[in-house]
Design brief:
heterodimer; A: 518 residues; alpha+beta; Rossmann fold; Elongation Factor Tu (Ef-tu), domain 3; 3 domains; 30% strand; disordered N terminus; B: 422 residues; SH3 type barrels; Nucleotidyltransferase, domain 5; 60s Ribosomal Protein L30, Chain: A; five-stranded mixed beta sheet; 13 helices; flat; T_Tr_GTP-bd_dom (chain A); Transl_elong_EF1A/Init_IF2_C (chain A); cytoplasm (chain A); protein biosynthesis (chain A); nucleotide-binding (chain A)
Chain lengths: 518, 422
């Protein structure tokens, strides 16, 4: 039956291209060669296999049994964060002697020889010229049991958005405080970054902190000064919500390199007299990586986008949850675009897969780089992060001078995203000491815990998104945390717990001139 | 705006004939014209005629139309306008658009009675507004809009690394003329050239946009503010003048003293409030309406923080405070006067007049400004009281007095029934 009909059709179909080819040859025209399409990378492992491998790797650790931790370096401006990290990298052999000499010479030429170590981290011309870290510097080193990814945060208050972007990728924090006279106090007082940074990292879910009391050489390795600083910081750390067992202190001097790796040199003689505790590196070696959520759907907030080699676009960030491998297709939110992972790079090496907790660079292909923005989220196509414009959050109000009212203009920080928004409704407050609940309060004052509704402001005429990808705290802890700032001051931290997915005009109450402003 | 003619009689009914001259006048008209008013303005209407033989001919007729207003629409930066390079540096042409729809209220040979029409108000063309009642707010707006030489403007660039918003601030409006977003790769340990390249691309975009949208050479532009966190403003300003020198832009180099650099905490447009609060700008713009609005709103929030009993907001609460003569400064948004229900508007007008009679200060916020937007979010009305009042106590008093009235009424009824009985 079928044999009767098919022979008629098959020659027709087969003949056509041949005929065309012949015609072209006859016309003496060249047949256009089909464009060489880059073969998209293939997925090598089945989903279950991948998860199995990831779980195994997490248990025994990668690379000779080392476990990865992400460490954000925080502290007041000029506490010596970048210098400490630069010196640390040198001591661990990550910086070549040639490079060190070049930095030393160049910084000396500019009359900034004290910044020589920091130049290892502060790469841009402007940072070097001003002697201030402006953006997160990403680097890594390994200790006997840990593979530490460091995120060197800027301490200047104007760059807190960048610091938040880094802190949201961290598991642990290294707080650097300046021990020299008056400097510690300046950083720790109200308005100093020591306090704000600690509160920020704690609200972003960091629970372990190592405090490096830096520049002790300046005060002549004064033991009482060290004790004074420890005694001042400890109550505040406990009050901020760090557990006593997860707070560690170490006296160091970054410039001369004492007590980072060892304190054997002549510079460490004074310290050896009264300090027998662990070195900074020993403390970092004991950092415990938190539990990684690898079974949840893949989430990857983008913190940096750059042009990679060839057609690929590099995106850096930390995998919030789930696991991913080369060749997988990912959805970019916000937007309606997909990209394919061509390559995953971790600490300079190419790796076949990446899992929750790793700070990696994904090289994306088959996507226009214009769709990849800092603040966007890559997620698995089967489970897409919802976008929200209006949502309710439970917030804890920090120490603020001006109260929060309905209509307060704020900036919302969610991973690397910084979005203007306003508090549209005050739903209820809970007094944290008495537990008294008050419905629809007029104002929120410091120390209160409150449920508020937040509405994003429209971005006006541009194509910028007026909704952000969010998930409730219950669904995904890493995706549900938020920080609220106003006028350069962090005023609250919170957790989403309800997203109202409204089309934008409705969410604005149909106001006529909203679109003209902001 | 020019006042061509005005007549308001004893009953407060009457008309005003106005000639708008710039964007801000459009905004004033938007605030003056209400639903139910009669509006006469030139219009272009397509008129179709069917001749006796059945042929249809249609033509555009320019005619004056009178309509009964049923809808008013305003948009600040609707038309693309002529943004060509030739007009750069000069007074900008009109960008705002005001559309007023309604039914035709006076017939003419071309248009039938009750036909719908939408009038586009144009700059330079007279508009006649007829109201049954001109209240004090409407009259004050007319008066204010016709004061000559109030065109002080400020150009502002609010920028951060990779983002910039170009705004024009005038007495009653803040218009974001353009935003730019340039993605800058963040610094990386190995290749820092990508970051630098991104930055220079950003500065270039800022410079070209600046030339296009900020009328820097205009005499009415009093200051050009470059605001940013960090040091972006320094770099931007350096770049602007480096380029101006390189290209020999004399007009731009001549206005160097107009430039002010201000530190703000975030690269978003709402940090314009911080700009207006900063001493450098405040001293330049003292006594201008928008600077004052910002300062008062700030004062209100501070009061809310320090003495909650002296800072009230919300229409009901403010009314209660006004009844007690406690309002020292009333902050009210023009949004409230645009209420579609005229009774609602009357209530607010009465409130404003009441406060003014008692010697209180009234500040009418423009919702086209950042401060007005914030006030709108805060129900649109707020008051700083001269003496502290506890809301809960006041509310209780109200309740009691209401109960008293009711019980008195009941007593009266009782007594009347009793008297009926006897």
């Amino acid at each position: 039956m079928s044999g009767a009909s098919t022979p008629v059709r098959r020659p027709l179909g087969a003949e056509k291209p041949d005929q065309q080819l012949l015609d072209f040859v006859g016309l003496n025209l060249q047949v256009e060669e089909s464009q060489i399409v880059e073969e998209p990378p293939r997925v090598s492992l089945a989903r279950e296999k991948l998860l199995e491998e990831v779980t195994r790797a997490l248990q025994i650790g990668v690379d000779n049994g080392k476990k990865g931790v992400n460490l954000v370096v925080i502290g007041h401006v000029d506490a010596g964060k970048s210098t400490l990290m630069g010196r640390m990298l040198y001591e661990l052999g990550k910086v070549e002697e040639k490079e060190r000499l070049a930095n030393e010479r160049a910084s000396g030429k500019m009359g900034k020889s004290s910044f020589s170590w920091a130049w290892q981290m502060d790469g841009t011309a402007e940072e070097r010229q001003r002697g201030v870290t402006m953006d997160i510097a990403l680097n890594s080193f390994s200790t006997p049991h840990r593979l530490v990814t460091i995120l060197d945060a800027p301490g200047h208050r104007d760059f807190i958005p960048n610091m938040i972007s880094g802190a949201s990728q961290a598991d642990c924090a290294l707080l650097v405080v300046d021990a020299s006279t008056g400097e510690f106090e300046a950083g720790f007082d109200r308005g100093g970054q020591t306090r704000e940074h600690l509160v920020l990292v704690r609200s972003l879910g960091v629970s372990q902190v190592v405090v490096a009391v830096n520049k002790l050489d300046v005060v002549g390795w004064d033991r009482s000064r060290y004790k004074e600083i420890v005694d001042a910081l400890k109550p505040f750390l406990l009050q901020t919500g760090f557990q006593n067992s997860k707070i560690k202190f170490a006296p160091v001097a970054a410039m001369v390199g004492v007590n980072l790796i060892d304190r054997d040199g002549p510079d460490g003689a004074e310290l050896r007299k009264w300090y027998q505790g662990p070195t900074l590196i020993a403390l970092l070696d004991r950092l415990e990586p938190p539990a990684r959520d690898i079974t949840s759907p893949f989430r990857f907030p983008i913190s940096n986008v750059f042009k990679g080699s060839g057609s690929a676009t590099g995106v850096t960030g930390r995998v919030c949850s789930g696991a991913v491998q080369t060749g997988e297709k990912l959805r970019i939110v916000p937007g309606d675009e997909y990209g394919i992972i061509k390559m995953i790079s971790y600490d300079g090496d190419n790796i076949p897969w990446a899992a929750a907790g790793q700070t990696v660079t994904l090289y994306m292909t088959a996507v226009d780089p214009i769709h990849l923005n800092v603040g966007s989220i890559l997620c698995s196509p089967t489970s897409v992060v919802p976008l929200a414009t209006v949502f309710t959050a439970t917030i804890i109000v920090f120490d603020i001078t001006m109260p929060i009212t309905a209509g307060t203009s704020v900036e919302l920080f969610h991973h690397s995203q910084d979005t203007p928004a306003y508090v549209s409704k005050l739903l209820s407050t809970v007094d944290r000491s008495t537990g008294k609940v008050k419905k629809s309060p007029r104002v929120l004052t410091k120390g209160l815990s409150a449920d508020v509704q937040i509405t994003l402001r429209s971005a006006g005429g541009t194509g910028k998104a007026y909704s952000v990808p969010l998930e409730t705290f219950k669904t995904n802890k890493e995706m549900g945390r938020v920080l609220i700032r106003r006028g350069g001051e962090t005023i609250a931290a919170g957790r989403w717990h309800f997203l109202v997915l409204l089309p934008w005009p409705l969410s604005h109450g149909g106001k006529r001139d909203d679109a003209c402003l902001t | 705006m020019k006042l061509v003619g005005k007549h308001v009689d004893k009953t407060r009914a009457g008309y005003a004939k106005l000639r708008p001259e710039d964007d801000e006048d459009m905004w004033h008209l938007y605030n003056i014209i209400q639903n139910g008013d009669l509006l006469r303005a030139p219009a272009i209407r397509r008129v179709q005629n069917v001749s006796s033989t059945g042929t249809v001919d249609s033509q555009r007729v320019r005619t004056n139309l009178t309509i009964r207003v049923s809808r008013v629409e305003f948009s600040a930066a609707a038309s693309s306008g002529n943004t060509n390079e030739a007009s750069a540096g000069q007074q900008p042409t009109s960008f705002a658009a005001l559309h007023i729809s309604g039914r035709v209220a006076a017939e003419n040979p071309h248009v039938k009675m009750n036909a719908f029409h939408t009038l586009d108000i144009e700059v330079g063309r007279d508009v006649r507004i007829e109201k049954d009642e001109w209240d004090s707010i409407a009259l004050a707006t007319v008066e204010e809009s016709c004061v000559p030489g109030r065109g002080a403007e400020v150009g502002a660039i609010v920028c951060g690394e990779g983002t910039a918003a170009f705004c024009l601030l005038s007495q009653h409006m803040t218009v974001v003329r353009q935003r730019i977003d340039v993605s800058i790769p963040r610094k990386m340990s190995s290749t820092s050239s990508a970051h630098e390249k991104g930055l220079s691309r950003f500065y270039e975009a800022v410079y070209t946009t600046f030339l296009r949208v900020i009328p820097y050479a205009s005499t009415t532009l009093r200051a050009i503010v470059i605001a940013s966190p960090g040091w972006v403003r320094d770099s931007v300003m350096d770049y602007i003048f480096k380029e101006a020198t390189r290209t020999g832009n004399k007009a731009l180099l001549a206005v160097r003293n107009k430039f002010i650099k201000i530190h703000v905490n975030s690269p978003h447009v709402h940090s314009l409030t911080e700009v207006l609060k900063s001493p450098e700008v405040a001293s330049q713009l003292k006594e201008t309406k928008f600077a004052r609005e910002g300062i008062m709103l700030d004062k209100f929030f501070k009061m809310l923080g320090s003495d909650e009993m002296r800072a009230w907001y919300g229409p009901d609460h403010v009314r209660l405070a006004a009844d007690r003569g406690a309002v020292g400064t009333l902050l009210i948004s023009d949004e409230l006067f645009r209420a579609s229900d005229p009774r609602e508007r009357k209530k607010y007008v009465a409130l404003v007049e009441g406060v003014q009679r008692k010697g209180g200060e009234v500040l009418q916020f423009s919702s086209m400004h950042e401060s007005g937007q914030q006030l709108n979010q805060l129900t649109g009305i707020a008051a700083i009281l001269t003496f502290p009042l506890d809301i809960e106590v006041v509310e209780m008093e109200e309740r009691e007095s209401k109960e008293q009235v009711i019980s008195e009424a009941e007593e009266q009824i009782d007594s009347s029934t009793e008297s009926m009985g006897t």
